[in-house]
Amino acid sequence: MGRQGLYLTIMGVCVGLFVLAWLVVSRFSVPAAVAMSAVAAVLPPVAAIVANSRRDQ
Length: 57
Fold this sequence. Notes:
The chain is mainly α. It has one domain. The protein has 2 helices and no strands. The protein has helices spanning about 5-25, 30-50. The protein starts with a helix and ends in a 6-residue tail after the last helix.
């Protein structure tokens, strides 16, 4: 998996976390949904860093 594939995977996880947090988890635990959203909010910059890394693959 190249950098683009890793970027898409991380962004897919990000979107999945947001959707699960507010459509499913928030019905049971709002603090858990907020925690999931906080993790998801950190993922886009991480994905950008990974996509722009200068590793050769």
